């Protein structure tokens, strides 16, 4: 199979040509072929101006591919993000959770283990909040999937009020990660609530 020729962005119809050629090659990715994934990654980089369109093709392929062919498409996504980055990183990050779940819920246990190994390489690639959300969603489908906790300096989505906002003095701006107490408040506002809760539980 000959490799598709990258389209020139300025030529009329270039977008359609690039998408048609990429889609044709993408449909041939029916098993985990490193040379084929590398070729598609290079083609994605050569057609960087059409990154959003190519991303849409890859995302659609993860949804429509048979369960046995979904993992290679995820490997292609991973390769595009790690080796090309830029627009591909931005677009894949946006729909990372939905795309991953679409694949995870349709594959067997062995493939899920490979997906976990793939996920384990993403800590330095995708935002930690996005990966945390992914872990939480996957854990709902498979309780054996570990949820990697966020570092202390990364805020976790929560319904609790952050004490530093309650304790912040108008004259003293707080720095990230610290709690500033106001001299006019002898006891932090959250302490009575906690004590009250403990008392109710004991009663």
Automatic annotation (TrEMBL):
Single biological process term from Gene Ontology: mRNA 3'-end processing
Statement: the UniProt record of this protein carries the keyword 4Fe-4S: no
CDD domains named among the record's database cross-references: CID_Pcf11
Domain (CID) ranges: 14-142
InterPro entries recorded: CID_dom, ENTH_VHS, PCF11-like, Pcf11_CID
GO cellular component: cytoplasm; mRNA cleavage factor complex
Gene Ontology molecular functions: mRNA binding; RNA polymerase II complex binding
Compositional bias ranges of the Polar residues kind: 175-187
Keyword set, alphabetical order: Acetylation, Coiled coil, Isopeptide bond, Methylation, mRNA processing, Nucleus, Phosphoprotein, Ubl conjugation
Signal peptide bounds: none
Pfam family, one: CID
Localization: Nucleus
Main localization (coarse): nucleus
Reported function: Component of pre-mRNA cleavage complex II, which promotes transcription termination by RNA polymerase II.
Subunit description: Associates with the phosphorylated CTD domain of POLR2A /RNA polymerase II.
Stated name of the protein: Pre-mRNA cleavage complex 2 protein Pcf11
Organism lineage string: Eukaryota, Metazoa, Chordata, Craniata, Vertebrata
């Amino acid at each position: 199979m000959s490799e598709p020729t990258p389209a020139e962005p300025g030529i009329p119809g270039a977008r359609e040509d690039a998408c048609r050629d990429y889609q044709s090659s993408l449909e041939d990715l029916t098993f985990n072929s490193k040379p084929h994934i590398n070729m598609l990654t290079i083609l994605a980089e050569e057609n960087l101006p059409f990154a959003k369109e190519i991303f849409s093709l890859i995302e659609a392929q993860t949804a429509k591919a048979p369960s046995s062919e979904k993992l290679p498409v995820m490997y292609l996504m991973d390769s595009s993000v790690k080796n090309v980055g830029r627009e591909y990183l931005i677009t894949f990050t946006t729909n990372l959770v939905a795309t991953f779940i679409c694949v995870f819920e349709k594959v067997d246990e062995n493939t899920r283990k490979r997906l976990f190994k793939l996920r384990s390489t993403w800590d330095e690639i995708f935002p930690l909040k996005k990966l945390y959300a992914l872990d939480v969603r996957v854990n709902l489908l498979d309780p054996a999937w570990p949820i990697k906790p966020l570092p202390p300096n990364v805020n976790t989505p929560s319904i609790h009020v952050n004490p530093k906002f309650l304790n912040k003095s108008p004259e003293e701006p707080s720095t990230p990660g610290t709690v500033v107490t106001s001299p006019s408040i002898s006891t932090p506002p959250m302490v009575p609530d906690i004590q009250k809760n403990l008392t109710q539980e004991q009663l």
